[in-house]
Amino acid sequence: CLATLIIMLVGDTYTLINYVSFINYLCYGVTIIGLIVLRWKKPKIFRPIKVNLLIPITYLAFWAFLLIFSLYSEPIVCGVGLIIILTGVPVFFLGVYWRNKPKCVNRLIESMTCWGQKLCFVVYPQCGGAEEE
Fold it and tell me: Can you tell me where the transmembrane regions are (predicted)?
């Protein structure tokens, strides 16, 4: 969110749309790669919808062409898009990967989550005590 606010203050809307569209296409391709990997490594798990592998492989071929073309034609926009994605890495390590956090960090993350839920009306907030694993 902070990176998006900075970009909106500094750049124009067209540039922001270019950054976000590159990020979206990158995430779509990674999702399809994940689908193929799961079909290969765990073929027996339940899938409510199962398609022929030719469809995601064809999609990945077009995706790779468009992504390479984007990287070639607008490397700066793609680089900034990758930097925007990489701003989420510290958040992942702070919130998910780091298991033995001090209680003050857990309380801070819980209050930020609750505040964000109230601000965006996305989930009915259940503040006042997180369930421990």
Answer: 16-39, 51-73, 79-98
